[in-house]
What we know:
4 helices, 13-stranded parallel sheet
Amino acid sequence: MIGQRTNATSRGLRCTGSRGRLSVDPSRIFVTVLLLATLLVACGGGAGAPTSVSGVSVTLDSTEIAVGEQVSASATVQGTGSPSQGVTWSTSESAIATVDASGLVSGAGTGTAEVIATSQADGTVSGNATITVVPAIAVSCSAPKAFSGAITTDTTIERDCYDVTGVVSVSGGATLTIAPGTIMRFANTSGVKVEIDGALIAAGTATEPIVLRGNVASAAAWLGLHVRSGDPRNVLDHVTVEYAGRHNTSFHNSAQTQFRSGVRLAGSGARLSITNSTLRGNDNTGIRLGGGVTLDDFVNNVFDANAGTPMIIESNQIGMLDAASDYAGDTGVIGENTLNHIDVRGSTVTLSQTWPAVSVPYRLSGFTLIDDASAAITVQPGARFQGSSASGIRVDAGSFAARGTADERIVFSGTSPSAGAWLGIYFRSNDAGNALEFVTVEDGGQHNTSFTGTAQTQIAANVRVAGDARLELEDSLLRNSLNAGLYLAASSELTPFDPNETNTFESNDVDVVDPR
Length: 516
């Protein structure tokens, strides 16, 4: 009992009174606590040693997946002091593989990529594992199914390979849906025709495109796809249409063989969306648009080795196209198109639109008339136009603004570099939006009474401005006209007033006619 009292006293405690009540000496407790803390640290106790991260290891459930497949990744963070296991996921090539926050890896394209886990406790430390992404497994055509007949009720063509005979017509309010990954091989008298009261949904994916092709790999092997329907659901997405363009009078509703194409959209009110699709090896043209039809969406398409032009459209449909599509053809695949230009037929433009700069020239035929007060046409820098004989652009109402840049001029030329190869550009509108800036207009000056409204050949020009019409003309080049480079009617309005202030004239029969 005496020993216990002595031990307690040495720790700042003292027992007093008959019942051994404990009293505390504050001056001694501080020393006691300090001593205990020192002993704990020396023995490795307390809150523990500080953490540090020395590495991250990454493990994949599988190191090879197909495009469109997924695999789980896990990570272990190494170090001292029980480091946090939190990591941030990423990949070295997102076009090949992507990974979400939980470590789920998805195959996006063929190739190899690193799946990377970075420590959240120390962002300078990471680890990785290699994933190989192989092509998606395509359906086998070793035992194709037969397909034919009219579609008059809603029908889905399941993912498989099919040999098609005869014309597959969609009508009677029916919708034909083609599943992603489907391959349809067509005999030479077969095709797909979507009538006015039918609908077509062919929505593939990047990893499972839909393929519509001839049963032999040559142009005009089958009739193609003919859409007359105005259903807003009509879509081709991630679809390849190849080796079509054979002509059939009943299929095309015409004896004219000029309607041969991979895809034809015809009949006033017909509409179709075409995105992420390939038109390849077709006869005459990849896509043909008839008058009064609409492309609801047209994005990121490719035209390869068509035996003619990539597209035939009307001038009022230029604004439906996009600049990102490849109209020129890829020589690394099966080659360029035979005629690498977009064939633009003359028409009347009554709606505002932007004419994009695409990878090939627009080749004009006939008159393009801009004829509505509310129609504002904007031409993007870098766009190129080629005028054939008897073709020209006339602005009767509305505005036409072609504003290029010093690095991306807009060019209007003839189909051949000869004076009078085409009619030129004629402004009859008094709209303040009319402008040619950093534009080259050449090889025009051909005369046409219907175009100019007079039999006087001397008023033909690369650029003509009628009486009471106006135009802003700056930093432009007008050359090689059969008649005038620039013809200004007496009461026309030009900005700047002096056409020679910023513009250049070369090799015209007459550079400027200016009676103002």
